[in-house]
Design a protein that fits this description.
214 residues, single chain, 9 helices, mainly alpha, 76% helix
């Protein structure tokens, strides 16, 4: 066992113990564990259809992530919960509806273009910094960097790590001969990604409000 692996195992255990007091922090030992088990996970996932693996794994990750957030907010007074819905069940239903469309976009992109793992990470991080809390995180990096910069790294650990991990587990299954994305490709992605945001807030969320809202 390498020193790096030993370090990551110890780190995951420490973060797990810390997260017992704050369940939302479970995302950190979770992604370390996924990284440590990547060899075994690849063997298992290779037996399943690529689209199902890519989109399904993301959905499972986000259901777990949202579950940690829900547990964190169980004892918080109604109206003060930091969730998409004050109703805990509705929030869990909204999670896959909110995040799955994003990973579908990512899947279609990596199927067409040969993105690197680094570019997937940076692209996801950049998008969510701009989109989270209606751009407030991005602005706070410059207006109040003491709060904004740490928050941007929290966004990174949540929204950018999981697409990276999923791509890491499946990259070998995509066609090796794919065009590399050009600079203009990234520019064209901006309206595409924000269309996901618009679809959720203008179509998906109103439908959920109509059917499930408290």
């Amino acid at each position: 066992m390498t020193k790096k692996r030993i370090f990551l195992i110890i780190l995951a255990i420490i973060l797990f113990i810390i997260a017992l007091e704050s369940p939302q922090g479970m995302i950190f030992p979770m992604w370390i564990t996924i990284y440590l088990l990547k060899g075994n996970l690849i063997k298992i996932l290779d037996k399943i259809s690529l689209p199902i693996v890519f989109i399904g794994a993301w959905t499972i990750f986000w259901l777990l992530t949202e579950l940690f957030a829900v547990i964190e907010n169980v004892d918080v007074e109604y109206g003060e919960r930091i969730l998409m819905s004050q109703n805990l069940v509705t929030d869990m239903l909204l999670a896959p509806a909110f995040y799955t469309l994003f990973i579908v976009y990512i899947y279609l992109l990596v199927k067409k273009y040969k993105f690197t793992q680094k570019s997937i990470f940076i692209m996801s991080w950049t998008y969510w910094i701009l989109a989270e809390n209606w751009g407030a995180i991005f602005l706070s990096i410059f207006i109040n960097p003491i709060i904004g910069i740490p928050m941007s790294f929290i966004i990174m650990s949540v929204y950018a790590v999981f697409p990276l991990l999923i791509y890491m587990l499946t990259e070998h299954r995509f066609k090796s001969v794919r065009p590399k994305p050009w600079f203009k490709t990234y520019i064209l992605l901006i309206p595409i990604f924000f269309s996901f945001w618009a679809i959720f807030w203008n179509i998906t969320l109103p439908i959920f409000k109509l059917i499930f809202w408290e």
